[in-house]
Amino acid sequence: MNALAASAAWLQPALVVAVAFRVAAGEADAPWLALAALVTPLVALLASGRSSSRNPVVAIVAAVAVTLLLAADFLVAADVATLLGASRWHGVALAAVSALAVAAWAPARRVSPWALAVAAAVLLLVPAAVALAAGAMPWSAWHRSGVRGALTFSQASAWVVGGERFARATTLRFAEGQRVIALAPGVYRVVERDAATPTVREWRLAAGEALTLRPGDELTVEAGARVRFEAGRRVPGAPASGITWADAPARGPRMLPAALGAVVTLLGGALALVPQARRGRVAVAGPVVLLAVMMAALAWGVYAAAVPDLVLAGAWPAPLLRLPALALGPAAGLPLAALSGLALVVMLATAALALRERLARASSPAPELWVAAIVTATALAVSSFDPWAVLTLALGLAAAAWAPARLAPSAAGAIAGPVVGGVTFATLAALPILASSPPAWLEALARYPALVAMPLGWLAARLMPPGGLGVAEA
Fold first, then answer.
1. For residue 217, what are the domain limits?
2. Which of 370, 385, 400 is the last residue of a domain?
3. pLDDT classification of 1: cutoffs 50, 70, 90
4. Between vectors from CA 315 to CA 119 and to CA 236, what angle results, nearest 5°?
5. Average pLDDT, whole number, for the chain?
6. Is the pLDDT of residue 401 over 50?
7. Which phi-psi region, left, alpha or beta, contains residue 209 (left: φ > 0; alpha: ψ -120 to 50)?
8. Is 294 inside a domain boundary?
9. Strand, helix or coil at 180?
10. Would you give the DSSP letter of residue 216?
11. Is 464 a domain residue?
């Protein structure tokens, strides 16, 4: 397999839009995430290991991990449908049909690598157009966004003019008073923190009714809720200022465990999903496409940060679908937004085809298994789960209980490593359920169980002697 085809399994739409979204939102881990998303698949392309690690443990883990990855991609499709005013299930159904169709189309494997390269070029097109229109390269736009004062709703904001919908249930924290108008009936939960003991109130509002929030209040809205905010007021949940966005206070020594957890999760996920590539003249195509896509995601995030309310709804594709029209105007922006959406569809198809091949090698080539994975992923995506939690769960499981099989020197180690890594991963992932308030030092392990699970799985795989579990070498 050449490097370009091998990279397709890594360039999931969910991962690409996650980078852009988290950069735009000013998440503290965004720089680590972007760097790891670029470097870890390059390590996997060069890593040596067992060419075939099929065994019962890996077969089960691969099926679960691939299903969760598909679910994360389908959740992104659901967010796209929400942004376009449709129901979530419309986006999920179209994504599921696309994943099924591409696996059944015979020429897909041949054209997939070059389709991925074209999609990467299209994703770079809009940031380039925005840079020309604004006269600011991404690093200049970063500086401009970093020196802003309070991040507020503009008069032209969609949240002010006609209101917007939330992609999933969200809790908003208000730094200043604001009047919020409900544009769709629903239940709105308010936590008032102006007294020593917080007061919780639930309001069932009809369309057109309003809530008055005070500084410090928290408002919880249901998935699909549509509201309108006041112009000139601070965007709830956004960083306090441009400086806070560019240099988040959470970036410090205390975030090191979580940052390392994200890196280990992505590295292990890449080792499981990205096979070693053939060397040759076209080998450079894979790294070039990886670099182009990650540069595009970073640029999208930086330019989208100039419109802080873009990420308010929690819809991951919002920067890619809404930024072009805001930055370039409807005439030029809407066609470019449509092209960007088409690029995501192409990336979904190429990623689905690559995942189908990885599942066939690790588990079974039976088409029934692929159909079952898509049906299960569809069922998960219809609910409004957090796509970041689903994506990190999939990559973390692959890192803990799939990657050790690739690194194992023997068939016995290819079973022992996934067993140890998988059990450790499941135990740590269950910490929030087993303990309502785990100690602070365990918080990073609960978020990224692969930080401990993958090294333990690798160690078990390396230490297991050949035939140690009664398994003969292949």
1. 158-237
2. 385
3. low
4. 140
5. 87
6. yes
7. beta
8. yes
9. strand
10. T
11. no
Pinpoint the alpha helices (H) of 84-212: 88-104, 108-134, 138-146, 158-161
Residues 352-372 have a mean pLDDT of: 92
- The total domain count for the chain is 2
Q: Is residue 395 part of a domain?
A: no
- Mark whether 108 and 231 lie in a shared domain: no
463 and 277 Cβ atoms separated by less than 8 Å = no
* Distance of alpha carbon 312 from alpha carbon 329, whole angstroms: 21
What's 218's domain CATH number? 2.60.120.10
User: Cα(73)–Cα(94) distance, rounded to whole angstroms?
Assistant: 12
The gap from C-alpha 447 to its chain's centroid, in whole angstroms, comes to 14
Tell whether pTM > 0.85: yes
| Whether residue 261 sits in one domain with residue 119 | yes
Reference 192, options 216, 220, 221, 222; nearest CA is: 216
Q: 425-459, pLDDT tens digit by residue?
A: 999 888 777 666 666 567 778 889 999 999 999 99
Burial of 440 (0-12, 13-18, 19+ CB in 10 A): exposed
Domain boundary among 351, 385, 419: 385
Looking at the predicted structure, is the pLDDT value of residue 50 above 60? no
**Domain-embedded: residue 403:** no
Cα end-to-end distance, the chain, whole Å: 22
Same domain, 267 and 250: yes
Show the tokens assigned to 273. Answer: 């999903």
pLDDT 10s digits, 67-102:
999 999 999 999 999 888 888 899 999 999 999 988
